[in-house]
């Protein structure tokens, strides 16, 4: 059988891996590079897609494929939200548009749950909890007697929102793994939370507003849970797609570590809907949790325009900023720039690492426990280096390029 590396190799973005046996063609994820609109190589005619989770770098092109798609219900719900938004974003940026709202509606959905084993032609597929965002999954595929484990994005350690990946897989023939943080350790979550709470108290004490840009899927809920756990009493506003995304995951209590806590946290949040709401939210010291996480759109831009000269206000990034995004620009240079606007931001700017990916040590531990015969490293900025390092540790590892075909 063959593994076709269609996208997401030696890069983060547009993940797509095709498994091809004599009888069966399975596509693992089919994403888009959100920042540039780049798409993976075409998969040709396939039998099914296994979708690991809703993030667009994994799901962004699935409406273009005429095949059954296997994912958890929470993944489908969140993916539809992100896919619809991606059409608007593509239009705005002048990127090609590959599908319509109708195509999103017509996705052929096959719901799976953790622990389930499904058959697609001669492939047997087992679904595992990946601990990355609610509904995220890793897949163990048995095809032509080879056992292949595809991690998708995963996090082993628990967060406020999720209990961490349950990847109980051993002795696989091939491990296809993400490697986003192959060279980074995340600081302990308790320290990151403490820092966030400190910034909030300091800013509110001088009558400022705290703007927290978040990714809609997963991160918004995590931040609300942190604020709830630390009993923050100041007004907390929630804006943009973060609202719908968090409402979606509340419908899946079985996926959440503490559904009650998230419900309570949401109940005490004030949603913002109209321009007037937004204006009012800035009339007093407050916390505003809003999309987009990398400032690439959404209501966060309104708040930045209003507060850019306010040194008493804070802008707290809660996730990695991809180079080329407006968020990256603000973090590196203090200047916000998108297609339409460019202005310096005088607010206090901070980055806090609330990552939903494995750290280096977690990644290495997982690989050690999994004892794979062969490792294919993808979804990272340092795939080649990491594969080299794994070889030195005695593993058979490689970091193929997009377009390469691996024969098993
Ligand atoms: Zn992801
Ligand atoms: Zn990803």
Report on this model:
The chain has 408 residues and is α/β, with parallel strands linked by helices. 30% of the residues lie in helices and 24% in strands. It is built from twelve helices and 22 strands. The chain has helices at 56-59, 73-93, 101-105, 189-205, 219-229, 241-250, 259-267, 275-281, 300-307, 326-333, 360-370, 383-392, and strands at residues 2-7, 16-20, 25-30, 48-50, 68-71, 108-111, 117-120, 123-129, 137-143, 146-150, 174-178, 209-213, 236-239, 270-271, 286-290, 314-317, 335-337, 342-344, 348-351, 374-378, 397-398, 405-407. The chain has a seven-stranded mixed beta sheet. Strands 7-8-9-10-11-20-21 form a seven-stranded mixed beta sheet, covered by helices on one side. Strand 4, helix 1 (56-59) and strand 5 form a beta-alpha-beta unit. Helix 2 (73-93) packs antiparallel against helix 6 (241-250) and helix 5 packs across helix 7 (259-267). The protein is globular. The N and C termini lie close together (6 Å). Residues 53, 55, 132, 153 line the site of one zinc ion (ZN).
Give the SSE layout.
Blueprint: E1 2-7, E2 16-20, E3 25-30, E4 48-50, H1 56-59, E5 68-71, H2 73-93, H3 101-105, E6 108-111, E7 117-120, E8 123-129, E9 137-143, E10 146-150, E11 174-178, H4 189-205, E12 209-213, H5 219-229, E13 236-239, H6 241-250, H7 259-267, E14 270-271, H8 275-281, E15 286-290, H9 300-307, E16 314-317, H10 326-333, E17 335-337, E18 342-344, E19 348-351, H11 360-370, E20 374-378, H12 383-392, E21 397-398, E22 405-407
Parallel strand pairs: 3-4, 4-5, 5-6, 10-11, 11-20, 12-15, 12-16, 13-14, 13-15, 16-19, 20-21
Antiparallel strand pairs: 1-2, 1-22, 2-3, 7-8, 8-9, 9-10, 17-18
Helix pairs in contact: 2-6, 5-7
The structure holds zinc ion (2 copies).
Residues 55, 57-58, 153, 379 line the site of one zinc ion.
